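Task: sequence design from structure.
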């Protein structure tokens, strides 16, 4: 699914990512760890097609419409309700029967009761849960998740862990984390940056 040879990223003279080689097979699960500033987020942005490597070759074998990306920003609209956000993304991704899928995801991530509240009234953890719903809504083949457990309480982290358990082996994952213990059991490969 993903093949990278010597990819690196520079911003002027500043190196954001040292050269990296990696292979992630279809349905594999790569865990990326490293200290702050080691290039984890930069690597994930390259894999998601949000940045271009300065050097090296990168082949991601999936159409960008089949990719789900969760970054540090939740990428949801704060003035819309949770339901309106997911309805918008469902229409943008042309998800068949998206209303049913939205209902299922809101239930799974414990947001059904607040679906009609504006996201601006959500806690940071609730917003992260909604962002996870957004990422999973179109049933992507490749999930690129940057610190997905950020801001989640134990209940929210448990909900995410269960969702990952259900999807592992049927999707390709690249997950960066400062909490490798949460995803180590799922990993088929590991990459330590820095």
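Answer:
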């Amino acid at each position: 699914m993903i093949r990278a040879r010597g990819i690196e990223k520079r911003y002027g003279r500043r190196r954001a990512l040292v050269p990296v080689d990696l292979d992630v097979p279809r349905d594999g699960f790569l865990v990326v760890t490293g200290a702050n500033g080691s290039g984890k987020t930069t690597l994930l942005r390259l894999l998601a097609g949000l940045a271009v490597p300065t050097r090296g070759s990168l082949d991601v074998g999936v159409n960008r419409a089949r990719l789900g990306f969760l970054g540090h920003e939740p990428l949801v609209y704060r003035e819309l309700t949770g339901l309106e956000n997911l309805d918008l993304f469902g229409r943008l991704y042309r998800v068949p029967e998206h209303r049913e899928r939205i209902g299922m995801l809101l239930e799974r991530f414990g947001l059904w009761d607040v679906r009609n509240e504006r996201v601006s009234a959500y806690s940071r953890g609730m917003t992260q849960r909604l962002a996870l719903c957004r990422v999973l809504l179109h049933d992507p083949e490749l999930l690129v998740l940057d610190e997905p457990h950020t801001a989640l309480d134990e209940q929210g982290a448990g909900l995410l862990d269960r969702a990952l358990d259900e999807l592992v082996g049927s999707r390709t994952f690249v997950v960066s984390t400062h909490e490798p213990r949460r995803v180590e059991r799922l990993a088929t490969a590991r990459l330590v940056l820095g």
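DSSP finds five helices and eight strands in the chain.
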